[in-house]
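As the work plan foresaw, our protein records have gained a structure token line. A representative record is set out beneath this paragraph:
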Amino acid sequence: ACLAAAYADRRAVLRAAAAPALRPLRCDGVWRGRMLMASAGPAIMIRDGDLVLAVATPPASAWTPWLSWRQAGRRLILQPKAGPAIRCRLT
């Protein structure tokens, strides 16, 4: 189950990396003050201009992604495997 979840996570990361980042995003924490863009889909890519900052995937029970995300309305919560959550808002 863990291996299957890890492969599903990796496929989602690759699809997100190929998707255009068209949704403006404002975040707190380490990304405060940056004009970020996010892609849409089950995994999201977060860019600052041409720089890819991260790709976040949904949390899974059998696999812990490096960066997971969940959404409540226009709010995104990005949770690194280690460290504090980053709260963002789609603008």
The first strand starts at residue 23 and ends at 27.
